[in-house]
Amino acid sequence: SDGDGVLDGMDQCPATPAGATVDTNGCPSDSDGDGVLDGLDQCPATPAGATVDTNGCSSDSDGDGVLDGLDQCPATPAGATVDTNGCSSDSDGDGVLDGIDQCPATPAGTSVDGNGCPVTTPPPPDSDGDGVPDSSDLCPGTPPGTPVGNTGCPITAPPPDSDGDGVPDSSDRCPGTSAGTPVDAKGCPVRSQKTEPVYIPPFRFNDGRLETMLDGHTAIYLHDGTGNPAIHIYRTDDFGNAYLTLARSLNELNQYPDRPEANMLIGTGIDGKVALYKLTSGEYQINVGPDSDGKIYIIVLPGLGGAFNQSEWNIYK
Questions:
Q1: Exposed, middle or buried by CB within 10 Å (0-12, 13-18, 19+), for 265?
Q2: What are the CA-CA distances from residue 139 to residues 125, 128, 142, 157 (Å)?
Q3: What is the largest CA-CA distance in the chain?
Q4: Cα gap 160→188, rounded to integer Å
């Protein structure tokens, strides 16, 4: 009756579907257990658990290589790598699945794009390239290479200050001050509440000596004792003993520029109480001190040789 080749009466499965293979008893079989009988099953080796169509063939809806029915994650995005259960992973935890992630080792917490790569925030516009965004730049159009401050405006270089005491060389009456030494507005050391420098009007003795009147301890000669222009400075101790503490001949003095770019320290006394400077004005300055009250005495000499009246000297009071 069912056309399976086994006679009725001997056919134990008399309603076998046409095309199904049967045994000697007329009964069909399903070798792969997919519910489609052998002979009708066009995919006779379907893995157990896979869903099949009426022809006994399985499908893979998400194309991940794991058959429907076995795939525990049936909607995996195309391109994502999956495990044997058909499920994807995200090794770096950036929200982009492995296989799709083009930057698979992104550090935790990094913002990424659709490819799993870090999102680079473009810098704010800086039209003149000075490092200050246009939104904050108060001086747009700064020439390339110009040093600027936080507002984008050029930084004006401070005037030269060779000894770093905060007083420009052009105004510093005591150049060469030791680092860290407190100074006054003229750049001279401040040692106490009584350290305002005292500028003494010099006067001449008949022997060419200038006396600073610093406790009677300092004498300045503008010659070398033989009539040649020079600067010789003597000091006397508390017992009246005199000694030459600093000497510069005319030849030595001529080695220095007539008008140096910055005030120059050109000599110090052996007792540390005298300093000789060549000023940018071309003048010589002698600092003596500090005395017991911390005062520094200063005389400015316009030059050497010739006869000078007191009114011709640069006197500071």
A1: middle
A2: 14, 9, 6, 17
A3: 165
A4: 16
Cα(289)–Cα(194) distance, rounded to whole angstroms?
A: 13
Write the CA distances from 178 to 165, 171, 260, integer angstroms.
8, 17, 20
Higher pLDDT, 181 or 25: 25
Q: What are phi and psi of 20, to 5 degrees?
A: -75, 140
- What does the H/E/C string look like for the chain? CCCCCCCCCCCCCCCCCCCCCECCCCCECCCCCCCCCCCCCCCCCCCCCCCECCCCCECCCCCCCCCCCCCCCCCCCCCCCECCCCCECCCCCCCCCCCCCCCCCCCCCCCECCCCCECCCCCCCCCCCCCCCCCCCCCCCCCCCCCECCCCCECCCCCCCCCCCCCCCCCCCCCCCCCCCCECCCCCECCCCCCCCEECCCCECCCCEEECCCCCCEEEEEECCCCCEEEEEEEECCCCCEEEEEEEEHHHHCCCCCCCCCCEEEEECCCCCEEEEECCCCCEEEEECCCCCCCCEEEEECCCCCCCCHHHCECCC
Beta strand 242-249 pairing with 264-268: unpaired
Residue 191 near residue 287, CB atoms below 8 Å: no
Per-residue pLDDT of 276-307, as tens digits, reads 999 888 888 888 877 777 777 788 877 664 43
d(CA 274, CA 270): 8
Q: How is residue 83 written in tokens?
A: 């495990």
Determine phi and psi for 136, rounding to 5 degrees: -115, -5
Stretch 121-131: mean pLDDT, rounded? Answer: 91
**Tokens 């050391």 correspond to what residue?**
189
First-to-final CA distance of the chain = 142
Q: Which amino acid is at 311?
A: S
